[in-house]
Amino acid sequence: MKYSMILVAGLFVAGSTMAADDASTNPVTEDGSVKITWQEPKKFRDVKSSGEVQSRYENRMFETLTKELNKQASKSLKANQKLELVVTDVDLAGDVRPTFGATANDLRIVKEIYPPRMTFSYQVLDGDQVVIAGDEKLSNLNFMNDIRPVNDKPFMHESRLLTQWFDKQVAPKL
Questions:
Q1: What is the DSSP letter of 171?
Q2: pLDDT (tens digit per residue) in 111-132
Q3: pLDDT tens per residue, range 10-45
Q4: Contact between 66 and 82 (Cβ < 8 Å)
Q5: Which residue from 57, 159, 162, 167 could staple onto 52, CB 3.0 to 4.6 Å apart?
Q6: What are the DSSP calls for 116-160, one per residue?
Q7: From CA 32, how far away is CA 52, in angstroms rounded?
Q8: Under a CB-based contact definition with an 8 Å cutoff, are residues 159 and 64 in contact?
Q9: How many CB atoms lie within 10 A of CB 160?
Q10: Measured between alpha carbons, how far apart are the two ends of the chain, in Å?
Q11: Under 8 Å between Cβ of 108 and 119
């Protein structure tokens, strides 16, 4: 009897863990007038953490990029408009390299040969009506040479990729 109760409890725990995994396969972040669905981040080309817990790193990246895009989008979107993205791939600037015991963490090396890339579909909604929609495959091969203020913001190259895309592709059509 005791073993069957333990078995039943184990099944409940396993079932709830699987349900939680299904819910987190496509996380959604929202900030102001921007909503981003991150479609299957485990399949993204490169969102590897160099020293932080992977899930925490991904969540921080999702939140940061959503917040930065909202800062830019809120300047052009009207009060009743909303920008929605479904991101299908991310390749962060740089590449994670092992340190082979020199430090406890790996290092992300940022060089010109590792540009930021992002693939997504988007739509701008005015209420329930779609105003603009499309698919994008962004990359900035010149990301190391862009004129920009010196800063050490996290995900600055990816944030810039999204905000420049918004300014050039979406804002003029609004």
A1: G
A2: 999 999 999 999 999 999 999 9
A3: 444 444 444 444 446 899 999 999 999 999 999 999
A4: no
A5: 57
A6: -EEEEEEEEEETTEEEEEEEEEEE-TTTTT--------TTHHHHH
A7: 27
A8: yes
A9: 19
A10: 67
A11: no
Say how far apart CA 6 and CA 1 lie, in whole Å.
Answer: 9
Nearest by Cα to 46 from 108, 112, 92, 97: 92
- Residue 168 DSSP symbol: I
Residue ranges covered by each domain of the chain? 26-173
What's the pLDDT at 153?
Answer: 85
The pLDDT of residue 101 is: 73
Report whether 44 contacts 90 (CB < 8 A).
yes
Contact criterion met (CB below 8 Å) for 78 and 173: no
* Spatial distance between the Cα atoms of 45 and 79, rounded to a whole number of angstroms: 35
Q: Are the C-beta atoms of residues 158 and 139 closer than 8 Å to each other?
A: no
b/e string for 28-62 if b means 16 or more Cβ within 10 A? Answer: ebebebbbbbbbebeebebbebbeeeeeebbbebb
pTM reported for the whole predicted model: 0.82
Give dist(CA 174, CA 121) in Å, integer: 17
Task: Please choose, from the candidates 170, 158, 165, 169, the residue with its C-alpha nearest in 3D space to the C-alpha of residue 65.
Answer: 158
| Per-residue tokens: 7 | 């078995």
